[in-house]
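User: Second chain of the day. Same drill as before.
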Amino acid sequence: MKSSVSLPLPGLAWLALLSMGIESAANEQPTEPPSRAEQWSPHALVELHVIDAQTEAPLKGARVIVGTSFSSSRGWNWQDHTLFKVDGSVVRWPRADEKGYQLQVIRVEVPGYVPYHTVPITRADSERHVPEDALRVVNGEPICLEARLSPDQMPTVRLLQPDGTPASGGQVAIAMNQREVRIEGRGLHTRDLPPKPKPGELWEQPVMTTADEHGDFRLPVEIAHRAVVVAAHESGFALVPVEEFYGNNQLQLEPWGTIHGQAILGGEPAADVRLRVHLRTRLMIDDYLEQLVIVTTDHEGRFAIEHATPGLVNISTIPDLPKEMDSHPRTHGLVKAGGVTELVYGGIGRPVVGRVVGLDDYEGLIATCELPGPSWRYGGKSNRRFAGFMRSAVGEAYRQTPVEVAADGTFRFERVSPEFYHVDIWRITANGDRERHGVRRQFSFPMLPQSENDLPLDLGDFKPYEPR
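Assistant: Same format as last time:
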């Protein structure tokens, strides 16, 4: 038994270019024998009728993929093994001999049209938390939905250099979850395909195009959560969410950044150290857009990176080189567009201050500042490497001696090197044990030019700890 539900058309977004042709028909004819994608599963959840939103005509030849495990940072995880094509205009999910997922969305693509996503669909027997707009469906009692697809107009957009002139030859792509774009040098790259790629591997290739001699280009509409338009040219770089890209007839690049850095570990310039420089852009979309650069410091511990994307940068040592150091120290900074950004990896550290409030007497209180160790989830190997780092000559710069809280509640650590720390306030009991007395504060601070290391970092007030 099937039930019918009418759903509103999702908002427009840019569709991935497809290699299949457009085909619509006023009257759908069944195919004999039916393909696996068109057979009913005893666990069927949904029957989806694909329709032109303007003409009401059925659309044949849709390509379908299912997404699960939604994340606010990257959207739905598209399961490439679920990719299939239907000959007619009716999509049935799950396919024969499949049960579907506890929670899923169905993405429908027809060339020349904006993609369509169903609302989340969950099995009625699912016990996990589901979104409020999810449809609960009993396996074997599928609901009937309409996927109303709108034609994609694909307007022309002009890519401009930072000075406003056309960026002829610039690359433009759409990056989204499962469609990864890498920034290398001054260009955009996608993952390499095997000699005989599977359909899912082809689907995961991002849409990419090149601006013509006038700087003009066209992209299809995409509606995936946190999808972005990224552009690269010898003169600069651009990155915008697709929602901000729509309706504009221009996309202007900003200049590349340049990093001049120096590694100072254990108080001395660190020569011949391999560093992982992860340029995360301003939007920090790590799962499907990245610029990763491996550098080796010179005899003075210096390194340089040209054509760096503006925004957040994370720097760490290469894991296993040497093993006992794992990936510490891990520090971050901000790369500005145009000009040179100076960064010191490690360095001599800066003062960190704070104050305990809400007490009549601060005698017997101490403050500790420590690097948080690896999560227990990572197992003993990571913990041993972290312990090895903390015992090393480099790790010594990241070990802070506990300090006494002054009579007015203030405390001060003199030289704290950039990293990720937590600060705790303790009271020393009569038998010498520590008793937590202040709310833990986690903090980090960016890499700074050496000239700014004397500026104290104020962590603010620490209130008394109240056990739950």
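The chain has four domains: 3-149, 156-252, 257-346, 350-462.

User: Great, on to the next one.
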